[in-house]
Amino acid sequence: MSKAVLQQASRFHWLLLALCLNAWLLAAPALAQEEYDELVPPPAQPEVWLLTYGPGSSYWQRFGHNAIWLREPGGLDHAFNFGFFNFQQEGFLSNFLRGRLQYFAAAVDVRDELAAYRGEGRAIRAQRLNLSANEFLVLKAHLLHLTAPANRSYLYDYYLNNCSTRLRDALDLALGGALAARFMDAPARQNFRQHTRRSTQNSLPYYLGLELGLGYPVDTPIDRWAEMFLPAVLADSLMPLQRRGQPLVSEDLLLAAGTVSAVPVQPAITWPLFAGIGLLLIFLLLGSMAMRRLPPALTLAGVFAWLLISGVLGLGLTCLWFFTDHAFSHSNANLLLCNPLWLLAFLPPLRRLVAVLMIAGLIAAVAMVAWPAGQYMDDMLVLVGPLNLIVALLLWQGLRPGAN
């Protein structure tokens, strides 16, 4: 392919990204100049603000978002935002499944950005940071470099390399490593699992999907530095810091209160709900075997349906662990409950072997839940465990639901 063709393709790629970005920004009208000046008067000197957006109503917005806002008299007045991706990028779906999703950064006119987030009903917090003139220049040069066409794309990781960690690293660079010195090895309030649970409990399918797909790495202890993957944690962490005898945060404003419900401080206790769902599934599958409320053929259909569903789910978990870059889906103990080996029960000579494996997996899952440092899988255990127990017993006795 010629150099000219490559250059033309590159220009088309960035034009497509720009069109996607403009479509998002135009979803809400820009703030009028008077309204904008009322929110934040024109700057008399260069200013740095950390913008933190509250959770949105869509499930992917529940973790919040943020941006760095640079202002200069008669110059820059842009929000540097690292949270964009393009559905039209080549291989989007396969990259997403393999954990190779490309995000990109952009410097956005701040009036458009504020209007867009306010239009979504999201809270907007603005913190003015007390940076020196040299620190401002370092931050500005770094952000302009990261949003240049040749550098704006990056390999996204939802915990380790996201919109908030990119801002954390940029601020740490401008502050000469002060954030890392203060917060690396400092204890976090919650680990990745706890933050994920409390952020997604308003959407049951999303919550359950993450509970199934995330493995032991999200349960390990983290420090405050890693915890800044959440925009709200980054914003709160800046509040007690001092620079040259002055607070790092010189102003802390609420530009928009937001209308979307806030994320709870702690994850709720959810296992009783899933235990109830699990018991309902057992009833729908078997009815009351002793009273023979359901025809045996229907019971057997339910058994094989569950073996197929849980086996395919287990196959997906195995692929996530061994064949993708989703590092936080590795070492997943949910394979004790949903495993591709369950599919072997479709071969009659292997049904008792599958029954033994299901019981062994259930015992190991109970031990994992009882182990204080183990993977959190309480919800999956009470949802899937009783169902696996009944299915294993039926497999052992030769799939005779009415047997005594």
Quaternary form: single chain
Sheet-strand content, in percent, reads: 5-15%
Form type: elongated
Largest sheet: 7 strands, antiparallel
Q: In terms of per-residue confidence, which ranges show pLDDT below 50 for 5 or more consecutive residues?
A: 1-28
What number is the mean pLDDT? Answer: 87
What is the end-to-end distance?
A: 73 Å
What would the keywords be for this entry?
404 residues; alpha+beta; 2 domains; 7-stranded antiparallel beta sheet; two-stranded antiparallel sheet; 15 helices; elongated; disordered N terminus
Brief sketch in words of this structure:
This protein has 404 residues and is of the alpha+beta class. The protein is built from 15 helices and 9 strands.
Q: Would you give an account of this structure?
A:
This protein has 15 helices and nine strands. Helix 5 (133-146) packs antiparallel against helix 6, helix 12 packs parallel to helix 15 (378-396) and helix 14 (351-370) runs antiparallel to helix 15 (378-396). The chain is of the alpha+beta class. A hairpin with a 2-residue loop joins strand 7 and strand 8 (246-247). It has helices at residues 3-25, 33-39, 92-98, 110-119, 133-146, 163-174, 178-183, 192-200, 204-213, 224-227, 231-238, 271-286, 296-323, 351-370, 378-396; strands spanning 47-53, 65-71, 77-85, 102-109, 124-129, 153-155, 242-243, 246-247, 249-256.
